[in-house]
Amino acid sequence: MSYAESGALYAEVVATERLSPHLVRIVLGGPEMSQYEPLLVPDEAVVLWFPKPGQERPAPTTLKDGVWAHHDPQTAPPGRNYTVRAFEPGENARMTVDFVVHPGGVAGEWAVNAQVGQELLITRPRCWYSPPEGVDWILAAADLTGLPALARIIEECEQDGPAVYAMVETVDADDLAALPATQCHARGVDASVGTGNGVAPGALADLIALKVAELSGQGTGYVWYSGEAAQSREIRKLLRKKHGWPLERVATVGYWRQDAERWNATFEKVHGEQLVKVYYEAIEHGLSSAEASELLDEEYEKAGL
């Protein structure tokens, strides 16, 4: 079945590289990679599906009730969302993905041990970064999980476009080597080392608050954040509730949760699957995905999630 029909393709590892103490780069290719259709947006992310122990490749998706997915939980492989750091189209297409490595992470441990020729399954991308026309400046911030997207935002900023300010929260200063050396007209990178990323409380929410206050007299801004989910909520509330920014000027993406075990237990206790209906009902009533997500997040917060 083709990528155009199923939205999934198999990719092979063609190269690996240790970028820094906490980042491993994997280059993916193979005969099916040329079918991939990039979104050409800096934070486009795909789901990577990994083989289960003893498998040479992850189980394929199947069609059920018009939906391509892993419908059988017994055979479904583990999957994680990852930013496409770079994509080179053509007959020998290549996709570059940077992995954060840490003990216990399914994807990170796979990446550390990845060998040329090993296979993954990739499903269609989605994205969130969308600065409105006419903004004067962009503040892009991320922890290690969002670093690949932040790197692309810096690389792809336009000389005659909005000024780009970047912030990153990392465990080790050496991880900053993953950012591009040429930074277009980006106004430098402010780094917070040793905070967030599961090792300490996050600092980006406070830093963003200070930067937004500093830039408040310099026209209209747009803030994009990618990283820990609780910090994502804090940043969005700051901009939406305190500063009254419209939703189209705020994009915060929670890639992971610091307190995932507690959150999952609470989700089950409060029957969180019922709360999720808020999202789909909002979509049915014509709201955008961003609007529906914000409503769902408000319901989560009320329920202690």
UniProtKB/TrEMBL annotation:
Residues 6-132 form the FAD-binding FR-type domain. Pfam families: FAD_binding_9, SIP. InterPro entries: FAD-bd_FR_type, FNR_nucleotide-bd, Riboflavin_synthase-like_b-brl, SIP_FAD-bd, SIP_fam, SIP_rossman_dom. It comes from the Bacteria. SUPFAM superfamilies: Riboflavin synthase domain-like. This is Siderophore-interacting protein.
